[in-house]
Design goal:
four-stranded antiparallel β-sheet, 4 strands, alpha+beta
Length: 101
């Protein structure tokens, strides 16, 4: 098997769940404190980048692997790209994954 291609992860948006957070959250900030919009991480050899949230990694690792191994998502306009998110229902984060040539 060929060596996987590096993948760049960019934080696109930290979402606010509003009333859901207020009703169900306990001591949870309105936006995820682990990331900042525009922040970038580089994935090498399909390994979680240093400083990346392990919970978010568990959610996006499959998509990182697909992109890193040359796969495509036909519903995404730009080749070598995927938009995905962590599944934290109280403060989710949307990521852009890009294959790095």
């Amino acid at each position: 098997m060929d060596k996987p291609t590096d993948v760049r992860i960019t934080v696109l948006k930290r979402m606010k769940s509003g009333g859901i957070l207020e009703e169900y959250g306990k001591g949870v900030p309105a936006e995820c404190p682990m990331f900042k919009e525009g922040q970038e991480f580089n994935v090498q050899d399909l390994n979680m980048p240093q400083g990346f949230c392990s919970w978010a990694w568990a959610d996006i690792q499959r998509d990182v692997t697909v992109i890193g191994l040359g796969g495509e998502y036909p519903w995404i306009k730009q080749e070598g790209t995927m938009i995905c998110c962590c599944t934290d229902g109280l403060s989710p984060v949307i990521f852009k994954l890009e294959r790095v040539a």
